[in-house]
Write a structure and sequence with these properties.
Bound molecules: pyridoxal-5'-phosphate
Largest sheet: 9 strands, mixed
Strand order of the largest sheet: 11-14-17-16-15-18-10-1-19
Structural class: alpha/beta
Number of helices: 11
Helix content: 25-40%
Order of helices and strands: EHEHHEHEHEHEHEHEHEEEEEEEEEEHHE
């Protein structure tokens, strides 16, 4: 693959595993659900899921039911999987058959899951979702008492086993935890309501990476770290990945295909949004927005070439972009877009800052066309 494609994403599974231990140490008495949604934030779901299990993850989490079904095939029977996004008419029966835990945060979802479980003659494992402040999915806190009694009846009828009660934090990545405190209070109330209905919950869970790292009071029985496993910070302005003891799992690089020198006053790439002020050496990097390199990286995103920091110059094209080249490097040499700060590279968080987004989006958007090369061990 790397012979045919000059760009590559090197994925360091040892770094991924080390990051998982950082998360585990931060929430030492809680179980850990490794979040591997969206192709493990662009890093490769099957490989990261296996590495997470090898490192002792208790659960795997993926957003979409379709991802969960594929993940089950990838990891085989046994590991616990939770999924939380599916639409009416989704094949929830397949999920129950595949031993996948389903989030239930609406009455239609409860009905669908109960109907599928009855058709199969086997209870569905569910995690009740309550909305404590995202205003996204989940039962409203005021509806929880009534919902809990309906759910309890289904549990007694053998249609569902209520494994979890969960929610998601909206502002845990900001210093100052006032709204997080509010969400914890609402979660506590839901917890009491559910207990009062006679439902015994094995797993209360609330925290993603930011809660795991920064809000111990949100750890409960299980934490759900995602971004920190990939070696990026939930909020680099609060603490960088390096400060958090995290190592980037992905390094993105490409072999330059052209080097050239242009005169002062030369317009570069589409629209000539960059014009050289002096004679300039340029390198052509064979990555573009067709590979998920955001067009907003034009003229601003950092790149390392020959051990020196340079920048994208001109507009990012579909399959390539240009950089200013320092002396002594050219076609055949490597342009490094992002990786670990400890290796002297810009991070995906730096790219996020340069282009007005977050590191999450930078790695998750990396296109399927870029080959992923895996390093490190997934042995148990
Ligand atoms: C994506 C996601 C996570 C992980 O979030 P990070 O900020 O990447 O740690 C956890 N829980 C839910 C419900 C999510 O959607």
């Amino acid at each position: 693959m790397t012979m045919s494609y000059p760009a590559r994403a090197d994925i360091d599974l040892d770094a991924f595993r080390a990051n998982l231990s950082v998360a585990r140490a931060a929430a030492a008495t809680s179980k850990v659900m490794a979040i591997v949604k969206a192709d493990a934030y662009g890093h490769g779901r099957a490989e990261c899921a296996r590495a997470a299990l090898a490192e002792g993850a208790d659960y795997l989490g993926v957003a979409q039911l379709g991802e969960a079904l594929e993940l089950r095939r990838e990891v085989g029977a046994g590991p616990r999987i939770l999924t939380w996004i599916y639409a009416p008419m989704a094949p929830v029966q397949d999920a129950i058959e595949a031993d996948i835990d389903l989030s239930v945060g609406t009455l239609w979802a409860l009905d669908a899951v109960v109907a599928a479980a009855r058709a199969l003659g086997r209870p569905a494992r569910i995690h009740l979702k309550v909305d404590t402040g995202m205003s996204r999915g989940g039962f409203c806190p005021e509806d929880v008492p009534e919902v809990a009694s309906i759910v309890r009846a289904h549990e007694l009828a053998g249609d569902v086993v209520v494994v979890g009660l969960w929610s998601h934090l909206a502002r845990a990545d900001e210093p100052g935890g006032e709204f997080t405190d509010t969400q914890v209070t609402r979660f506590e109330r839901a917890r009491a309501d559910v207990a009062r209905a006679g439902i015994e919950i094995e797993l209360h869970h609330l925290a993603a990476s930011s809660g795991t790292l920064w809000h111990p009071e949100t750890h409960y029985d299980m934490v759900r770290p995602g971004i920190c496993l990939y070696g990026l910070s939930p909020n680099p302005a609060w603490a960088t990945a390096a400060e958090l003891g995290l190592r980037a799992a992905m390094t993105l690089s490409a072999t330059m295909i052209v080097d050239r020198e242009v005169e002062a006053g030369t317009g570069i790439s589409y629209g000539h949004i960059a014009v050289t002020e002096a004679r300039t050496r340029l390198g052509v990097v064979p990555l573009g927005y067709g590979d998920g390199i955001d067009r907003k990286a034009s003229n601003v995103a950092p790149v390392v070439v020959g051990g020196q920091r340079t920048r994208v110059i001109g507009r990012v094209c579909m399959d390539q972009f240009m950089v200013r080249l320092p002396g002594g490097v050219g076609a055949g040499d490597t342009a490094w877009l992002f990786g670990d700060a400890g290796a002297g590279l810009p991070t995906a968080d730096d790219w996020g800052e340069a282009i007005g987004t977050i590191g999450y989006e930078v790695v998750t958007r990396l296109g399927a066309r870029v080959p992923r090369n895996y390093h490190g061990s997934v042995e148990r």
